[in-house]
Specification:
CATH superfamily of one domain: YVTN repeat-like/Quinoprotein amine dehydrogenase
CATH architecture of one domain: 7 Propeller
Organism: Leptonychotes weddellii
Pfam families: WD40
Keywords: Repeat, WD repeat
Protein name: WD repeat-containing protein 17
Shape: globular
Structural class: alpha+beta
CATH class of one domain: Mainly Beta
Number of helices: 33
Radius of gyration: 35 Å
CATH topology of one domain: Methylamine Dehydrogenase, Chain H
InterPro entries: Quinoprotein_ADH-like_sf, WD40/YVTN_repeat-like_dom_sf, WD40_PAC1, WD40_repeat_CS, WD40_rpt
Strand order of the largest sheet: 1-48-47-46
Largest sheet: 4 strands, antiparallel
Distance between the termini: 21 Å
Helix content: 25-40%
Length: 1199
């Protein structure tokens, strides 16, 4: 195991503890990811093995893995080591963890998927081409006509047979030895053309093809010249195909509870219907990885004839720019090298619009201000354009730059009639939207960036290849710059004006630096150095005036404090050059970035302003939350909000009467939280608190609804799906047909128990059999009427199928009349005779009688079922890294305790405190626990805690909780200040002075009160005196046979807060080693109690290694620890569900006894729901950073 390597490395040095450094975790959190589509350039760009499949964008490989518990594919990793276009990937046939990829620079990389790392790089793999035979179609023999081979595959069972597809001729099966064409396969249409094919390994002689014009998948067998079956899967043509050797093993036949928006664009993977093995995989048994020309990729179950996974589209090349829509920040637009602009819904992470055609390379985009619903785009060769998003067409083009590339387009947000572009021709052109040129600003070299001032509508800045920044004033007729700023040593690429500080702008350059310029002082006021490659993306935060974010070709995003020029944080998660950065208009601490790795990622900057969040939670004065720009930018000032969003919140709160605390917490929480469920959560809180339904927002029904609204809203949705006109939904991606909408409506009605409505919709769709099969669930009378309607229809259509319907309902007259009208007199006679003999009888409806008591029993059963379903759905969201939506599932069924537990386990502590405070008593225990954890977070921030600000924040949080003395003691014991500062903190926490604590400790020791002795020694000038007393107490306890975790944990927990500089004293070496051993062991027991299985073995190993390498006298033996760990493993191992899995070995009697003793010691976790591993928002998303790897487990940190 990986953790064994990590831990053993720790003990190679004796002073490992003294040299141990805190991992430098990035504070900026990744909270969302838009994956790329599959490239349409090369052929071998999809592959599969076992329960994984992979596909390639141009520079990145996407690995999806089957989650067996929920039977769905999830994005597992993104590999982006190649610098040139990836040409092929291939999975190792003998090892499912290993695959290879090649690129146009003759580089082959061998990857380990499980460990997400490169095993080897093979350079100079270019080989010599050789030909054995040339096999041309017979129709071309003797001619010069070309018909390129588009695909060829060897028969997996014989190297003699080769399947070949030509672009025009079609498909042939060839004998490669005799050069004989065995079979020529015929298409149903002459227009059909194939560019990809694949054998089905598990069905000899069977292969599949994908049409290149439209997405038709055809299944063939070598015994027939025509297809066995055809499925139209998409409107766009196939690019490549790959069939899995065997279908993924499915442990559960459970349908996915809802869409997994992180992996799917407009469709999601769902499990197939419950079928027998023969039914499900009759012909052929397999799954096809399908890649389409529009970048779409999916996994199609050939047996069940349905998608297991489908991601309809995505960019397949570098994404150069991204921008949130100003008046609807739920929409994010992206511009790409692939020639398209796409618009995404960031709540669902799905594409909703894509620009028509291909514009070549699109370098830049800019939304029109207000509600114009237009985007301006800048291209490499086709000038600039305006795309009307709703109409789906280009409404204007600008060609003033000729064929020169336009690197930036900027739509003025102060004057919506003006658009600026800058180009390689050396001009920055300002024009009106109807094409009238207002200014042509000539530069001495190419112009790469331009930006309108947000404080002066007539001011525009440019960045030029001549290393200079220029500022122009558009209101004058002069084409000369007002200011020229020099200082960069390489070309300037982007410029950005500060939205909050008038006259301040920044520039990013190929020299790797970002410079801050003050227009009023005509000077560079700061240089931000740290990037190791050219800077591309630039973004000012819209609330904190000194917060600047930059993206670079060094693959990183850096967050800067421009006051001092310091880098606050570096993000390593992108796998290639970072180009575009954009700030969410109404959630100013949410940003998006785009990269050459073809992804768009969403980030939360909120952890950078923890003191500000805590000021809001602690209900501090407005002066400590909101300020003006001048005050906020003063050196040393803690973060203050200065932007439009915070001012509007303050304005609205000041208008409220009564206690505005609940509203204040909600509005600031929504402002500071990233998208992904916080709005949904607050809507449910409002419902629980009794808010009138009429005040719920329009989009409430699109999220997780409270139980009392579910039926009402879903019925309404089904009715809307049935009646809405299609024109209302024009222009978007994947717009459903009327039939698809009716099917969706019918499914909703069926799940709501509205069977009659379902039947009527099925009838409208022509699905009579489905309607009739469930109609008896309404009543037998309704079923008979439906049968009569079907019979009447079939008689009108003159179809023999009418016979069973008439016989089933006993309508002999109708059937006899039908036969007679067709001249089938013998049949009519036969039916009439059968009726006379009594063989055809009508069905009579009987009314069942039931007691009210049985109804009550059913209701209780349904409630229990509902609870289980809610928990299952919540856990699905939680394990998918969406703790807020998991909490929503629990609030929807009024389970406040579990909702709070999910927020806490997901590290959404600030949100938990806000929601818990508003919910009141029902959430109080969890709220207090979240406050304690938040205070601990302040204490554990290594660079900030010694400051008075963080110290006081931690104290304020703890003072908000009842029975807080012990937590305040831990805070004061841990604080590493001088005696005077420590005494100030003691006073704030209402604790005795350091000197008084020494006296109290000595008194408690004389009285034999161990806990009080340890407590007061820790608070004294000599906290190290607490160590031997506390450790001896614990050692004595664990020598007895009946000790429990709760008897020793409080003392051990308290000892762990001793100040580090005291713990590392040479005189404390033995006590330190014993403390570490006890903490390791008790930590393992706590992990077992809290069901955090992944770290249990590592903690046992950690403790064993310490016992092995340190001279200590602790009543723990390595042999005992080993037996305990083996017993825990044996008694908690999952029971095997399949013969294919490793054999299940039941625990021995002795192991059962050891485990039973262990459980007695553990007892129960006091706070409900805080058990199981934690999954923080975004922790499941692929990252190229290695600083989030646990030193205990060697795996990615989920907390």
């Amino acid at each position: 195991m990986a953790w064994m390597t990590y831990i053993s490395n720790w003990f190679e040095q004796d002073d490992w503890y003294e040299g141990l450094q805190r991992a430098n975790m990035s504070q900026v959190r990744q909270v969302g990811l838009l994956a790329a589509g599959c490239q349409p350039w090369n052929k071998d760009v999809c592959a599969a093995n076992g329960d994984r499949f992979a596909y390639c964008a141009t520079l990145a490989i996407y690995i999806y893995q089957l989650d067996h518990r929920y039977n769905e594919f999830k994005l597992h990793a993104i590999m982006s080591e190649h610098k040139k276009t990836i040409t092929a990937i291939s999975w190792c046939p003998h090892n499912p963890d290993v695959f290879a990829s090649g690129s146009t620079d003759n580089l082959v990389i061998i990857w380990n998927v499980a460990e997400q790392k490169v095993i080897a790089k093979l350079d100079n793999t270019k080989g010599n081409k050789s030909q054995k035979h040339v096999l041309r179609p017979e129709s071309l023999e003797g001619t010069d006509e070309e018909d390129p081979v588009t695909a060829l595959e060897w028969d997996p069972l014989s190297t003699d047979y080769l399947l070949v597809a030509n672009m025009h001729f079609g498909i042939r099966l060839l004998d490669s030895e005799s050069l004989y064409c065995i079979t020529t396969f015929n298409f149903p249409s002459a227009a059909a053309s194939v560019q990809c094919l694949a054998w089905v390994p598990s069905a000899p002689g069977t292969f599949v093809t994908g049409d290149s014009q439209v997405g038709v998948l055809r299944i063939w067998n070598v015994s027939r010249t025509t297809p066995i079956d055809n499925f139209k899967l998409k409107k766009t043509g196939f690019h490549c195909l790959h069939v899995l050797n065997s279908p993924p093993r499915k442990k559960f036949s459970r349908q996915s509870p809802t869409k997994n928006h992180y992996m799917s664009s407009t469709s999601e993977a769902v499990s197939p219907p419950t079928l027998t093995q023969n039914q499900a995989f009759s012909l052929p048994p397999g799954h096809a990885v399908c890649c389409f020309l529009d970048g779409g990729v999916g996994l199609y179950d050939l047996g069940a004839k349905k998608w297991d996974f489908l991601r309809d589209l995505g960019h397949v090349e570098t994404i150069f720019d991204c921008k949130f829509k100003p008046d609807d920040p739920n929409l994010l637009a992206t511009a790409s090298f692939d020639g398209t602009i796409k618009v995404w819904d960031i709540n669902t992470l799905t594409a909703v619009y894509t620009s028509p055609g291909n514009e070549g390379v699109i370098y830049s985009l800019s939304w029109a201000p207000g509600d114009l619903n237009c985007i301006a785009g800048a291209t490499s060769r086709n000038g600039a354009f305006i795309w009307d998003v709703k109409k789906g067409k280009m409404v204007q083009r600008f060609n003033e730059h000729g064929k020169d590339g336009i690197f930036c387009v900027a739509w003025s947000h102060k004057d919506s009639k003006r658009i600026a572009t800058c180009s390689g021709d050396g001009f920055c052109i300002v024009r009106t939207i109807d094409g009238k040129v207002l200014h042509k600003y000539k530069h001495p070299a190419a112009v790469f960036g331009c930006d309108w001032s947000q404080n002066n509508k007539d001011m525009i800045a440019t960045g030029c290849e001549d290393k200079n920044v220029r500022v122009y004033y558009v209101a004058t007729s002069s084409d000369q710059p007002l200011k020229v700023f020099s200082g960069h040593t390489a070309k300037v690429f982007h410029v950005k004006w500060s939205p909050l500080s008038e006259g301040i702008l920044c520039s990013g350059s190929d020299d790797g630096s970002v410079r801050i310029w003050d227009y009023t002082q005509d000077a560079c006021i700061n240089i931000l150095s740290g990037h190791t490659a050219p800077v591309r993306g630039l973004m000012w935060n819209t609330e904190i005036p000194y917060l600047l974010i930059s993206g670079s070709w060094d693959y990183t995003i850096k967050v800067w404090d421009t006051r001092e020029g310091t880098c606050l944080d570096t993000v390593y998660d992108h796998g290639a050059d970072v180009y575009g950065l954009t700030c969410h208009p109404s959630r100013p601490f949410t940003m998006a970035s785009c990269s050459r790795d073809s992804t768009v990622r969403l980030w939360s900057l909120t952890p950078l302003i923890t003191p500000l969040q805590i000021n809001i939670l602690a209900d501090r004065s407005w002066e400590e939350i909101i300020g003006n720009t001048d005050h906020a930018t003063a050196q040393g000032t803690p973060p203050l909000l200065c932007g439009k969003v915070s001012r509007e919140i303050k304005h609205e709160i000041e208008k409220l009467t009564g206690n505005p605390r609940a509203k204040k917490l909600r509005w600031f929480s929504e402002c500071l939280s990233p998208p992904g469920g916080s709005d949904n959560l607050w809507n449910l809180v409002a419902v629980i608190r009794g808010q009138d339904d009429s005040l719920l927002p329009q989009n409430y029904c699109k999220g997780i609804m409270h139980l009392k609204h579910l039926i009402k809203f879903r019925t309404s949705e089904a009715q809307e799906l049935t009646t809405v006109k299609m024109s209302k939904f024009g222009g978007g991606i994947g717009v459903p047909t009327k039939e698809e909408r009716l099917k969706e409506a019918a499914d909703i009605h069926l799940r709501l128990g509205q069977i009659q409505r379902y039947c009527e919709l099925m009838v409208e769709l022509g699905e009579w059999d489905k309607a009739l099969s469930v109609a008896p669930g309404v009543s037998v009378k309704y079923w008979k009427k439906l049968m009569q309607r079907r019979a009447d229809q079939l008689i009108q259509e003159d179809k023999d199928d009418v016979v069973p319907y008439c016989i089933a309902i006993g309508d002999v007259k109708k059937l006899v009349s039908f036969f007679m009208s067709r001249g089938q007199l013998k049949e009519a006679l036969l039916v009439a005779q059968a009726a006379c003999e009594g063989n055809m009888q009508t069905l009579h409806v009987s009314t069942p009688k039931g007691s009210s008591s049985s109804d009550d029993i059913y209701k209780e059963d349904f409630k229990e079922l509902l609870r289980k379903v809610s928990e299952e759905l919540a856990e699905w969201y939680f394990q998918d890294g969406r703790a807020v939506l998991a909490a929503c599932c629990q609030l929807a069924v009024d389970n406040t305790e579990l909702a709070m537990a999910y927020l806490i386990r997901g590290n959404e502590l600030e949100l938990a405190v806000c929601v818990g405070t508003v919910l009141g008593d029902a959430a109080a225990p969890a709220t207090h626990y979240a406050l304690e954890l938040l205070a601990r977070k302040c204490m554990m921030t290594p660079t900030c805690f010694p400051s008075v600000g963080y110290r006081n924040l931690a104290a304020d949080l703890l003072l908000m909780t009842p029975d807080n003395e012990l937590q305040l003691v831990k805070l004061c014991a841990f604080y590493p200040g001088c005696t005077e500062e420590i005494n100030d903190l003691h006073e704030k926490c209402k604790l005795p002075t350091v000197e008084e604590c020494m006296q109290l400790a000595e008194t408690a020791q004389a009285d034999g009160n161990i806990f009080e002795t340890v407590k007061y020694y820790l608070l004294s000038q000599e906290p190290e005196k607490a160590l031997p007393i506390g450790i001896d107490y614990i050692k004595e306890y664990i020598t007895s046979s009946n000790w429990t975790l709760d008897t020793i944990y409080p003392v051990l927990d308290l000892l762990s807060y001793i100040r580090t500089e005291k713990l590392v004293l040479h005189t404390c070496t033995k006590a330190r080693n014993e403390l570490l051993i006890l903490c390791g062991y008790i930590g393992a027991l706590l992990a077992i109690r809290r069901q955090y299985q992944s770290i249990v073995p590592a903690l046992y190993e950690y403790t064993s290694q310490l016992l092995k390498h340190r001279v200590v006298s602790v009543p723990l033996k390595i042999e005992h620890l080993s037996k305990e760990l083996d017993a825990w493993r044996a008694c908690t191992q999952p029971v095997s569900r399949s013969s294919e899995e490793s054999a299940y070995t039941p625990p021995s009697d002795s192991q059962k006894m050891v485990y039973a003793t262990l459980l007695k010691r553990l007892q129960q976790e006091p706070l409900g729901g805080i058990v199981g591993p934690d999954y923080v928002t975004g922790s499941n998303l692929p990252s190229h950073s290695d600083i989030h790897i646990s030193c205990l487990t060697g795996l990615k940190i989920q907390v």
